Each structure stands twice: as structure tokens, then as C-alpha cells.
Amino acid sequence: MSDERTDQTPKSYRPIDAKGFRESIARGWGPVDRSVSLPAGLAEAAAEHRRKLSAALPGRRIALGAGHAPVRSNDTDYDFRADSDFVWLTGCQAQGAVLVLSADGDATLYLREAAGPEEADFFANARDGELWIGPVPGLKDWSEALQIACRPIEELPSAVRGAVPFMLSVPGVDPMLDALVRTSPHDGNALRQSIAELRRIKDDWELDQLRDAVSASVLAFEDVARELPEAIRGGGERWLQGTFDRRARTAGNGVGYASIVAAGKHAPVLHWVRNDGAVNEGDVILLDAGVETRTLYTADVTRTFPATGEYTAAQRQVHDLVHKAQLASRDAVKAGAPYRAFQHAAMVVLAEGLRDWGLLDVSLDELLGPDGQQHRRFIVCGTGHYIGLDVHDCDAARPETYFAGEIEAGMALAVEPGLYFHPNDETVPPELRGIGMRIEDNVVVHSDRLEILTDGLPIDTHGLEKWTQKHLNHK
């Protein structure tokens, strides 16, 4: 007997539109954990940061957005990472959140409330729906954790209506804010600038976050050293990158920036982030990488170590000069000194060493003068910068504040001299071609001393050989 039934389903039919599904999905859900887990002191630190900003810009109304994850391809996004200034002011990492500061400094955080089972977004929104991404904190949960008033994001338009003058961070962070608030480029830059200059001095809570980031990074460097034999057997730079990334993801939020894993001839490339080359015996590995904590503070550490535990004579020659420059640079980092002093100290050592090697045929005075700088062929980058929520922290500060100011207690800096001889550089002897060396320490300035956060890693050739050999033999 034939079945005379026909399929009556409309071509545009979706199961989630069915009445039975909608009635079923709305029932029978028990409570879930939406609590916000934050480290002690975060809410208090963020509140103090807001107070400082309000004092720096009295009478101004301010709005800052956390931002949104950029699209990776089609309907998939990159991982979300909240705007650094927003995090500094709130401690919140909720996508799409917006902070509004009133003229007298009162703060309100506007967020998207999670959709309940009776709402379509609960089950039909792949980017935000609870059935797709799991439970997320609600307004009440964020408010209790951060000790800040939280309101639905739908109320943001009325909250900013008539807000004149109104300042916004760089346009493009949040499309809704761009549509609601017309901020001039001058005002947007001024806000970024003010926050950057405040962020130059870290409070005790922030310094603890950086200490945690560096400690985790030191462990990750040790992980990489133990995996050198596997990299030589064929895993290459990719294997070492994955090794560091695993520790970063386990101990923190992930890596704080694109890791540089440069073996052999790739070591002179300042930002070798392709990390797709081989690792061979006799290579040095220039590893520039940092763990980002779950509060988004990042370390920025570099060591250049021998893949099989021993430098060649030429590699040792270059590393010893960089080591000498590093010691001179660190000695110049002290409260009250000009910011440029530690960078100048490194350049003096490097220029003098290169001249002694016969690579430069002019006087030291000419090399270091404004019309000289021939030594910069071998180190075109700077030799230090601020660290914090961004790997190159506080870049929006005014040049006269960033470069021409004095070093102050509470500053956290990366100190990173290096030398880079490209394999096709015919101005240097063949034995130096393809050698790149960098040493990068993370330091904190105190009124009476310099704290070396990265002292868990050696910086001299002998110490790095012993360190590498130790981890090679203890996998």
C-alpha cells in the first residue's frame, strides 16, 4: 500500500519557529552560576583609577566602550579582548559594555542582560545565547562584583542624550557609541592621552598583576627549553610557540602579544611572528613572549639561548656585548633620571662595541650625534618601553611626557637592548651574518631601588648555557 502523505513543510521552515519547540524550550530550567570571579583588590583599584581620571578631566562627561570581537571570517569571530583603557577603569571584560562617567565622577556601567529561556536570543543567537556560549553574568552579578551601578545597554541612548561636552575614546571601538555620541578626533585623542599618562604610574595592585605575569612567563620559557629536542627533530618554531602558548593559556588569559620564536637566521628579524621555520643544532632561539594574566596585564620577556646548550664563538661575542649593554641600561633606570637615559646608556655600549669590532669607522661622538647614528643599522628599534595592560603601554601619552619626562617610582618598564645582523648584510663579516641577540628584562622602579621582575631567568652567556642544559636534561 503506497503512502500518499506529502511533505507539507514550507521551504522557509525553521524548527525553532515551531510552537511546540517554543513552549518546550521556555520551561524547566533550574538556576545556574552567574557569579563573577575577580581577584582581590580589582574593584577598588578600578574605582581609584576612575577617581584619578575624573580629577584629571574635571567637569567632563566621559564614555568608554569595551568593544566587540572582530570578525575572523564569515560568522566566526576572533577571541574578544576588551579595550585596555576600559579595563583599567572598570575591571570588566564584558563584550559590548559601556562605561559612562558623569561630570562629578559617578560611574554607571551599561551591559547586555542575558536573554531568558522565553526569549529567542536564549536559543537562536549563536554569538550571545546561553545555549550556545553558556551562562554569563547579569547586571546584578557585575554590580555586586565591581561595586558599580549597572544598567541595561538599551538605556544607554537616554543616558548620553544631551551630554555636552562629551568625550569618547577612539571612534570605532563601539558602533553604538559612534552613532550616539559625536566626538571630535581631538577630544577622543585627548581622552586616550589623559588615561595613558595616568597609566604610566602603576599602583600596588597593578604591580602584583605584572609580577604574576612575569612569573608565569618564566615557567613558559622553561617549558620551551625542555621542548628544544622535539623542535630540532622536526617540530620547529611552531612547536616551541605552541609550548609557550599552552602555558600562557593555562596560567593566564593567553599570550599578551604575538609571540616571536625566531631560530637561526630568523633571529635578526625584529618581529618574526610567522614562527614557521625549522630549528637546527647550532641555532640560537630568540624567544620574545609574555603571558597575559586574566586581568589582562602582560609580561614582555626576551632571552636568546642556544638550541643545544652551547653558543658558538661568534654567537657568544654578540651576546656578551648585548649583555654589557643590558647591565649599563638597567643601571641607568632610577627614579629621577631622564626617561631617555637608560636607552642612551645601552646605545653607548653597543656603538662603542661595534666600533671596536671594526664595523663602524667614525668616532663615538659622531655615532651618537643627531647626524650620525650609523650603529642603528644593527638596532633600528628602541631599547625600552612601558609595560602594563598593553605590551607597549601608554603609547597615547604626549611625546614630551613619554620620552622627555623623568623616570618615577611606580613605573614598570621593559629594558631590551639587542643586535641584529641579517644573513644578507654584506657589511659585516660572514661569521656574524644571521645572528640576532636580544635580552629583555621587566623592571619596576622604586624610590630607592630597581626591582628586576625577570631575575628568574639568567642574562649572561654562561648562565643561559647552564639554564638551557638543565632543562634539556630534565624533560
How widely separated are the two ends?
71 Å
| Number of distinct helices | 16
CATH architecture group name of the largest domain: Alpha-Beta Complex
The count of strands amounts to: 18
What percent of residues are in strands? Answer: 5-15%
CATH homolog superfamily of the largest domain:
Creatinase/methionine aminopeptidase superfamily
- Give the integer mean of the pLDDT values: 93
Instruction: Tell me the overall shape.
Output: globular
Tally the structural domains. 2
Q: Helical amount among residues, as a percent range?
A: 25-40%
List low-pLDDT spans. none
CATH topology of the largest domain: Creatine Amidinohydrolase
Structural category: alpha+beta
Largest sheet: 5 strands, mixed
Q: What strand line-up does the widest sheet have?
A: 6-5-4-1-7
Our Rg estimate from Cα atoms comes to 27 Å
Which CATH class of the largest domain applies here? Alpha Beta
